Amino acid sequence: MEIKSIELVHFRNYEQVKVPFHRGINIFVGSNGQGKTNLLEAIALLSGNGSHRDAKDTDMLSWQKDFYRIKAEGLTFNHPFQIDLLYSGEKRKKVQLNGRTLKRIYDLSEAVNTVIFSPEDLALVKGSPSERRRFLDREIGQTSPAYCDVLQRYQKAITQRNALLRRIRQKEATMAELDLWDEQVAPLAVELLQRRLDSIAKIAPYARQIYNSLSEGKEELDLTYRSSFPLQYDRNYWLDDYKKALRDRRSEEIIRQVTLVGPHRDDLQLYINKREAKLYASQGQQRSIALSLKLAEIAFIYYFRKEYPIVLLDDVMSELDPQRREQLLKDLHRRQVQVFITTTHLRAFPATMMKEMALFRVQEGRLWPTSE
Amino acid sequence: MLYYAEPVSKLIEELSKLPGVGPKTAQRLAFFLLRQSRSDAVALARAIVDAHDKTKYCSSCMNLTERDPCRFCCDEQRDQSLICVVEDPRDVVAIEKTRDYHGLYHVLHGSLSPMEGIGPEQLKIKELMSRLSSPHLREVIVASNPTVEGEATAAYLARLIKPMGLKVTRIAHGLPVGGDLEYADQVTLLRALEGRREL
Ligand SMILES: Nc1ncnc2c1ncn2[C@@H]1O[C@H](COP(=O)(O)OP(=O)(O)O)[C@@H](O)[C@H]1O
Ligand SMILES: [Mg+2]
Ligand SMILES: [Zn+2]
Question: Which CATH number fits the domain that encloses residue B89?
């Protein structure tokens, strides 16, 4: 999988740029606030699961402009593709893949998958459960449009159900209506749960193995899914389990006017040597866990697709020690993964690899190839 | 808005209430309308008012109509044993285009959506229930949209109508016929797979 070129118009601080990329490693150098992360964000949008920093289209639109456009050309399984994203103020942007308008933006994952590493990844370990759910949803979603579909429908159903809880509290709706929405929410919740657990069963061994080698065999990483309600061993009972949980919490939910159980409240728990990482992991261990999860995500995508995703490394080179840095780049290079790296200075890069790379200077929303 | 003459700001404000029209589009539309001749402007204004004044809901099926009962409800040739329930008058037009459905319709004017304050009371469900005692009726086809709200509405209707001994069916969602599988989007294809039937 490879992006051959990208064109940005009125995107963040880019007025208009068009650049061809190297099929291997691309490095964007520039001081802070010049537009490096913005560029990675644009590339990440090509995989159709939104901005990696959760930005809205209105945030990404250049100030004072009324549309932004991202066009890209690339190859997947040696077949050329063209992507055209156009946002011009409506609720949803217009997305074309090979000239065909897509009804669902996440269908772009047919052409492009991306995995992004950024300093904020540390929040995967110490942050709230929503960070870890977002990681799961992005990861699974890229390998399965069906997952994205179920997730969106579930979120919509929960939003409706929460609105209904408010109306019941204000005596504007009946319990019979709540029964009805419970029936809508439950099968979606169970399907999400099953798909998440299946995916974790695939990703956990990768993460474990990677973490184990990062810690030179000294530590073990475990991933477990924590459901917000009790589940029986047999999946056939999960629908009943969830309906029971909704019944049990109903009066509390009406008072608090939110749905308290379901996949939107679940967590992915991380353990190092059987101790919960959220509570005990050191700064160094947190870095290694985040790195392991992201590397496992690459392996996971490869497992399903038999093609590596595009890897985006935002300011993380300086966080790794020189040995890991070189190891990571060598691995990615050996697997012929296309990589985009941002950095404020080139010191971080092993000299031996410099000839396999393309170098770009980023300054005030402009971008040009450079040789030093 | 401060910079426009008062009547122009008013026009922009009204236009921006239209679905899918933001402030920028509203401005563009307003200036387009102002560049047109006065007679074009009057024709548009009159068409809007006429559409309002000269249509009403059919007292039986709740479709938009010029005369009550509407042409579907008056037509004795139509199959009185079938009622197809839709969310919106546009859905009636879509189904009529098939020219192969000859039953009756019922328009709910929306779907259940607590967010928008739409419960069963806000939809034309009471009106539907009062039609179900017709001795000719055998089947109610629920053709609400395949959205979360449309499915909830369908489930609600099924729960209400089935105990009356009527057959309640839900339209299938799947591939457009004649379209190549190759061009179907992935979720549509997936739903079609889920809805597969034995041959
Ligand atoms: N919507 C926008 N329109 C114009 N400029 C923007 C927009 N959003 C962010 N910027 C600018 O982009 C710059 C930050 O770019 P970023 O890619 O985060 O920098 P870095 O090179 O440090 O990664 C800031 O100067 C900010 O003002
Ligand atoms: Mg940055
Ligand atoms: Zn009628």
Answer: 3.40.1360.10
